Amino acid sequence: MRFTSDHAPLTVTISIEEEFVQTIKLSLPKKSDEEEAFIKKVSSIIKSLNTSNLLNQESLKQVVNLLVARIKQAWNANTRKVNITKYSKKWWNEDCNRSLNKYKESRSLEDWKLFKRTVKTTKKSIFDIKI
Questions:
Q1: pTM of the shown model
Q2: 3-state secondary structure of 16
Q3: How confident is the model at residue 6 (pLDDT cuts 50, 70, 90)?
């Protein structure tokens, strides 16, 4: 049932490479004890740096590498691993977690409505701050 065409059919092969999607990240919750401890540790690291013998590029590189290594240690000591999920949004907070978990336990319509209300309120407050 096809008519003749003046177009030659083209075939294109596009190779798709395997992509690594990170699902876990290290996180430092805002205004938490961990954040405070990290900031104190970094402050003490910076204060304790010996910068009196920076005479050439090599000594500067050594001091900078030492600083980086110590800050990494402080970061790893104070952060926690977090799974990245569809709820990994900047506005997502502990209230959202609690109301979602409550709904998951009960499966009631009231808890679902509470969860949706919590999300809406949280989003609104975060976006009002940004605006």
A1: 0.51
A2: coil
A3: low
